[in-house]
Write a structure and sequence with these properties.
Elements (H helix, E strand, L loop, with lengths): L4 E4 L5 H11 L3 H9 L5 H8 L15 H13 L3 E5 L4 H16 L5 E3 L12 H9 L2 E7 L6 H9 L3 E5 L13 E3 L15 H13 L7 H10 L6 H16 L3 H9 L9 H18 L3 H8 L3 H33 L2 H4 L4 E6 L6 H12 L3 E6 L5 E7 L6 H5 L8 E4 L3 E7 L3 H15 L7 E4 L1 E2 L7 H7 L14 E3 L4 E7 L5 E6 L2 E5 L6 H6 L2 E13 L2 E14 L3 E3 L15 E4 L2 H10 L6 E3 L10 E5 L4 H8 L6 E6 L11 H14 L2 E2 L3 H8 L3 H14 L2 E4 L2 E4 L12 H18 L2 H9 L2
Parallel strand pairs: 1-12, 2-3, 2-4, 4-5, 5-6, 7-8, 13-14, 17-19, 20-24, 21-22, 21-23, 23-24
Antiparallel strand pairs: 8-9, 9-11, 10-11, 14-18, 15-16, 16-17, 18-19, 25-27, 26-27
Helix pairs in contact: 1-2, 5-8, 5-9, 5-13, 6-7, 8-9, 9-10, 11-14, 12-14, 13-14, 14-16, 24-25
C-alpha cells in the first residue's frame, strides 16, 4: 500500500521542452525539469550550475553585524577571554568550529562551550553563564542559539559579561538585550536571504571579521546547512556547492578521518552522504553524551588525534543505531496494540529507553503509522517521563498540547516537534488533548503528498540521464530531488538485505532498485500482480563498474487479498515484520514466542479487535468456523504462515488400526492411560493416533475411563467409528489443514475470503 498520495507536477509541452533544450544546450530530459523549475534563460542556468562567492550577500547587511564585529575586535584588542557558546547538533558543532577558526585567524584564543543535552539543555543556561563569568569570560558569542534566551542573557549583561548573539531560530516576541543580535530574519533588519543555518550565520560573521569569505571553513558551513534542513537556494546553494567541492578535496583532516572511519570515498561525497553518512555520526555525540569532541575533530590538525576521535564518533553512531533500532521495535509493538490501533495519535511510554534518541524513534513511528506521536522514557522512580514528539504536516503538535502545558514540568517545540517532561500520572491527559485536536484536524486528512516530476519510460533508465540530473544538485529544501513514476513490466530478484533484513532490493525492467526500510514488503511485492514505483535516479559502483540504480520513495501494489508466507518449517524470517501475529492455539503461541523474536504483537484469535490491520495467521485453526471468525476481524490483505507441528496433522487411524488398539486394551485389562505411548509402539500407531482412538472409543461407549484406568466395555452398542463427534471434527480439521497447507495461493485466497 502506498504511503503517499502521488500528485503529478504540471508537464510542459513537447515544443517548450525542445525550445528550451536548444536554448540552454541541454538534453530534453533535463530541459523538462528546468522548465518545471522556472530556469528558462541562459544567465539563470549559468548561475545555478556555476557557484561563485561573488553571489554571496554582503555580511554587513545582517542586523547588528557592525556591532558584533566591533565588540569582538575590542575583546581581541583588550585580550579579553572569549567563549563561544554553541549547540550539540551538527549545525551547532559546525557553527562553533567556524567561529573558533575565524576568531583564531584574527588573533583571539577563544574557548568553546558545547552544552550537554541532558545536564544543560538547549540554549543559554543560567548556571552555565554564571560559571563562564566566574571563570573569567568577558564576552560570550553564541552560535546556533541565543535569540530565545532573553532572561539569561539580560542577567549576564547586567552582571558585566557581554553577549553577542548569532542565531537563525524562530524569533520570540522579545529579544535579548545583547550587545548585538545577528539574525537573518531580525525584525529590524533587511537581509536579502532569511534561511541561513546557524553555521551559515557563523560563516557570515567570519566573513565580516576577515573581510572576505573564509573559504577554509566553507566545508563546515556546507555540513551545517545540509544537516539543518534549511532551504538549499540562494546563497545556501553556493555554500553547499563550494563546500562539497572542498570536502571532496580532502583538505580538512578531521572530516577525512571521519569519512575513512565510515568507509566513505571522499571523492563521492554529496548532499546525501552528508545527510545520511556524516551528519548522523556527529549528531550521535550529542544524543548520547558529550558533543565537545565533535568540535575538536572538526578543527584539529593532528592526523592521529583525528583518527582516534573519528573512530570514537563512529562507535558512538553504531551505539546510537543499535539503541534506535531496539527502541523503535519495542515502541512499534506498543503502537500496534489494539487501543493504539484505534487511536488517531500515539503516546508511547516505557522505562529503560535512552532519552537522546527518542526524537528519532518518534520520527520512525510517525513514518510507519502516519500518526502524531510522543515517545517517552519513564524515570527509574516511575514518577516522571521525558521524551520527544514528532508530527505530520496537518497536525500542529505544539498547539495540541498547549491546553495541558500546566500538566507538564517542561515543554517546548513547534508544529512538527516537541520536547517535554511530564509526571507519569498526567500522561493520559496529554493523550486526551492530542486526540481532541485530532478529531477535527485529522478527520478528513489523507496521506501526505508526493510530487511526481514525470513518468519514466524504459528508454529513460540510463546512467547518462542520472549524470545530467546531478547538475541540479545539491538537492534539499527549496530544490527537491526529482521523483519519477515507473510502471515496470518485470519485477525480479526480490530479496531482503541488511543485517536485520530491513531493506529491499530488486530489479525493475533490468535496473536495480534499492528500498530502504521496506524489507517487510518482500512478500507483498513477490505476490503483486501489478507494481507502480515512485523512484529517484541514483548510481551504484561495484567492482569498478558504475551503473544506474533507482531509490524507491514509494510504491503502489495491486496485491492479492492473501499474501503467502508459508514454509515447510517455521523460520525466523516469517516473524520479523511489524505485523500483528494471530494464533489459534495458546499452546502454540507460547511455544513459538519462546523460540522466535516477533517483530510485532502476538494475540489469540479469540481476542482480536475489529478490523485488525497487517495480520498474520500463524498456526492452524481447529475448524472452518474458527477460521471464518478470525477472518471477520482482520483487514485484507492478510498474511498466512499456517505453521503446523507434524504430530498435529497425523492421519486418522485406519479401521484395522482402531481394531488393534481395542484388542490390546482388552487383553491388557484395566489400562493406565499414562502408558499409551507403550501401547502405540506395540500396535504400530503414533501416540497421537492412540490417544485419538481412545477418545473415539470413549465417546461411542466402547471403553470407560475411571481416573487413569481405561476399561473395555463388555457389551458395547455397535456404532460406526465415523459417527463419533471427535472423529468428525478430526476429519474436518485434517481436510481443512490439507487445504491451508498445500493449496496454491489463488485457491487459498478463495477459501479464506469466501462469505
Amino acid at each position: 500500500m502506498a504511503h503517499y498520495d502521488w500528485t503529478m507536477i504540471a508537464q510542459p509541452d513537447a515544443k517548450q521542452v525542445a525550445d528550451l533544450a536548444e536554448k540552454l544546450a541541454v538534453p530534453p530530459f533535463l530541459a523538462r525539469l528546468l522548465q518545471q523549475r522556472g530556469i528558462v534563460d541562459p544567465d539563470a542556468w549559468a548561475r545555478f550550475i556555476n557557484p561563485s562567492v561573488t553571489g554571496l550577500h554582503d555580511p554587513f547587511l545582517l542586523h547588528d553585524m557592525d556591532k558584533a564585529v566591533a565588540r569582538i575586535q575590542q575583546a581581541i584588542a583588550n585580550n579579553e577571554k572569549i567563549t563561544i557558546y554553541g549547540d550539540y547538533d551538527v549545525d551547532g558543532l559546525t557553527a562553533s568550529s567556524i567561529m573558533k577558526e575565524a576568531l583564531e585567524a584574527v588573533g583571539a584564543e577563544p574557548e568553546v562551550f558545547i552544552p550537554d543535552r541532558f545536564a544543560d539543555g538547549y540554549g543559554p543556561n543560567p548556571a552555565v553563564y554564571k560559571y563562564l563569568q566566574s571563570n573569567g569570560t568577558k564576552l560570550v558569542v553564541t552560535v546556533d542559539n541565543g535569540v530565545a534566551g532573553k532572561a539569561v542573557i539580560d542577567d549576564a549583561m547586567a552582571a558585566g559579561m557581554d553577549v553577542v548573539v548569532t542565531d537563525h531560530h524562530e524569533l520570540p516576541d522579545e529579544l535579548p538585550e545583547a550587545v548585538a543580535v545577528v539574525h537573518p530574519r531580525h525584525p529590524d533588519g533587511d537581509y536579502p536571504f532569511g534561511d541561513l543555518s546557524g553555521a551559515g550565520v557563523a560563516f557570515k560573521v567570519a566573513t565580516a571579521l576577515l573581510d572576505e569569505p573564509p573559504m577554509d571553513s566553507i566545508d563546515l558551513a556546507a555540513l551545517g546547512t545540509i544537516c539543518d534542513l534549511v532551504s538549499l537556494t540562494d546563497e545556501n546553494r553556493i555554500i553547499v556547492q563550494l563546500g562539497l567541492q572542498q570536502i571532496r578535496s580532502g583538505a580538512r583532516v578531521g572530516l577525512t578521518a571521519l569519512l575513512d572511519a565510515a568507509s566513505i570515498d571522499p571523492t563521492t561525497v554529496d548532499e546525501q552522504t552528508v545527510g545520511f553518512g556524516i551528519g548522523p555520526r556527529l549528531n550521535a555525540l550529542g544524543r548520547l553524551g558529550d558533543a565537545n569532541p565533535g568540535v575538536t575533530l572538526l578543527t584539529t590538525f593532528d592526523d592521529e588525534e583525528a583518527a582516534r576521535l573519528a573512530a570514537n564518533v563512529n562507535a558512538r553512531n553504531t551505539e546510537r543505531q543499535g539503541l534506535v533500532k531496539k527502541i523503535t521495535k519495542e515502541a512499534m509493538a506498543i503502537a500496534q496494540q489494539p487501543n493504539n490501533l484505534a487511536a488517531k495519535t500515539l503516546v508511547i511510554a516505557n522505562s529503560g529507553w535512552h532519552e537522546g534518541v527518542l526524537g528519532i524513534v518518534a520520527s520512525h513511528i510517525v513514518e510507519a503509522t502516519g500518526k502524531p506521536t510522543l515517545v517517552l522514557n519513564i524515570a527509574k522512580d516511575g514518577q516522571s517521563a521525558k521524551g520527544s514528539g514528532r508530527s505530520v504536516p496537518d497536525y500542529h503538535l505544539f498547539k495540541s498540547l498547549q491546553p495541558v502545558r500546566d500538566e507538564m514540568t517542561h515543554f517546548g517545540g513547534h508544529a512538527m516537534a516537541v520536547g517535554l517532561t511530564v509526571p507519569t500520572a498526567n500522561i493520559p491527559k496529554l493523550h486526551a488533548a492530542m486526540e481532541q485536536l485530532a478529531q477535527t484536524v485529522l478527520a478528513d486528512v489523507g496521506k501526505p503528498q508526493l510530487a511526481i516530476t514525470a513518468r519514466l519510460d524504459p528508454a529513460d533508465l540510463t546512467l547518462a540521464n542520472y549524470q545530467v540530473l546531478r547538475q541540479l544538485a545539491p538537492f534539499g529544501q527549496g530544490n527537491p530531488e526529482p521523483v519519477f513514476s515507473l510502471r515496470p513490466k518485470r519485477v525480479e530478484g526480490i530479496r531482503q538485505i541488511g543485517q536485520g533484513k530491513d531493506h529491499l532490493k530488486f530489479s525493475a525492467d533490468g535496473v536495480d532498485v534499492i528500498a530502504f526500510g521496506l524489507g517487510d514488503q518482500a512478500d507483498a511485492l513477490q505476490a503483486a500482480q501489478q507494481v507502480k514505483l515512485a523512484v529517484t535516479l541514483d548510481q551504484n559502483t561495484w567492482q569498478n563498474r558504475t551503473s544506474l540504480q533507482l531509490r524507491l520513495n514509494d510504491m503502489t501494489i495491486s496485491a492479492p487479498n492473501v499474501i503467502d508466507m508459508r514454509l515447510p518449517q517455521p523460520s525466523a524470517e516469517q516473524f520479523r515484520g511489524a505485523y500483528t501475529y494471530v494464533f489459534f492455539s495458546a499452546k502454540t503461541m507460547a511455544k513459538l514466542t519462546r523460540r522466535f523474536q516477533f517483530g510485532g504483537p502476538t494475540v489469540l484469535a479469540k481476542d482480536l479487535g475489529q478490523d485488525t490491520p497487517n495480520a498474520v495467521l500463524v498456526d492452524l485453526p481447529q475448524s472452518h468456523a474458527q477460521l471464518q471468525a478470525a477472518m471477520a476481524h482482520v483487514q485484507l490483505p492478510v498474511r498466512v504462515v499456517f505453521a503446523a507441528d507434524p504430530a498435529e496433522i497425523v492421519a486418522i487411524p485406519q479401521r484395522e488400526e482402531f481394531g488393534r488398539v481395542l484388542v490390546y486394551l482388552r487383553k491388557a485389562g484395566p489400562y493406565d492411560k499414562h502408558h499409551l505411548p507403550a501401547l502405540a509402539a506395540a500396535v504400530h500407531v503414533t501416540v497421537v493416533q492412540a490417544i485419538f482412538a481412545v477418545q473415539v472409543f470413549f465417546e461411542l461407549g466402547f471403553v470407560t475411563i475411571d481416573g487413569a484406568l481405561i476399561h473395555v466395555s463388555e457389551h458395547p452398542v455397535k456404532a460406526a467409528l465415523d459417527s463419533a463427534t471427535a472423529y468428525q471434527q478430526r476429519d474436518a480439521f485434517l481436510k481443512l489443514a490439507k487445504h491451508l497447507l498445500h493449496d496454491d495461493r489463488a485457491s487459498l485466497e478463495a477459501l479464506l475470503t469466501q462469505p
